[in-house]
Task: structure prediction
Amino acid sequence: MCRRVPGLRVASYTSSLRFKRKAAGTETIGQELKVVWLLEGSVRKAGKQIRVTAQLVDAESGNHIWAQRFDRDIEDVFAVQSEVTESIVALLTRRLEDADLERVTRKQTASLDAYDYVLRIKHYHHRGTKEDNARALDLVKKALSLDPNYAQAHAWLACILGQAMNRGFIAQTEDDLERAFTAAETARSLDDNDAECHRILCEINLIRRDFDRAEYHQQRALSLNPNDPRIVAQRGYLLTCLGQPTDAVEWIDKALRLDPAQPGEYYMRSLIVLHAAGEYANAAQAFVRLAKPQFFAHAHMAACLAELNDRIKAKPHVVEVLRSRPRFSVMQYATTLPFKKRVDVDHICAGMLKVGLPR
Result:
């Protein structure tokens, strides 16, 4: 079992070495090693340069899932090894979850256990709409009724409530904030080595403006699973909240490299990070990559375009914000930004006011 990715078992080097000079199909190798995916590749050297090619193959079908080429100086060989490992672990983390989700969606609801419910919860949560958030909350209740001591169910209860408050699906009341915090702490007490629990605790503590605890839990999540793109992206967002948006950009970029197939939430965070860092043109590029931008994404985009003195392109975004949220207020939205420094909040607000969004 891979320590940092629960559910991922890696066959030993010695057990796979016997296939080095043996003609065998991927399905045979997969069956003998009892693995689902195979990593193959080559290394070529020319002078002081090396070329490493790596590809991940579905053992059963033989289809290629991922392939990449790395051209580096010979001195960087160990850096390439780390980069290949990071890319594959990030890909498989998402692949494992998607494969399990595909499996459970074929079942009837009555036969699902608590784990299956949590997979469905993640699915609805990532879709990000008010209706999907409500569906996820209902599934959390079902998961906890089956297993009240399931750490991830408690963690996702906290995450769903946090999403609902951040996106305006429910009011950010003290009661709901305390409920989310209690759920997250319960998850941590049940499994302190679950990176997901610490990731979610970071988010909840950001909402509570407890920056020291947010930093602690983010560092803990990162140490437990340093190649989870969600945790890597969170690092960038946290640095922005702490007043270091320039340092945050590289973390968002890393998350996008680790998981290019699931960029939605990373581009949203990238938009906010780049806006805060004053990189308005790059922020606009992040926005256009969003499949279904929420009202607040349009607000940030409008502000960035205003800072670029392009009010003509900004106007449709203002219209969309007010269509989605007729009572939108820049000052009220500012209260949802968990920024430690007032200057960063004022910077975001200034662009939104400049483009004509209501104070």
In short: Confidence is low (pLDDT under 50) at residues 105-111. The domain at 107-226 is CATH 1.25.40.10 (Serine Threonine Protein Phosphatase 5, Tetratricopeptide repeat). Strands lie at 37-46, 49-58, 64-73.
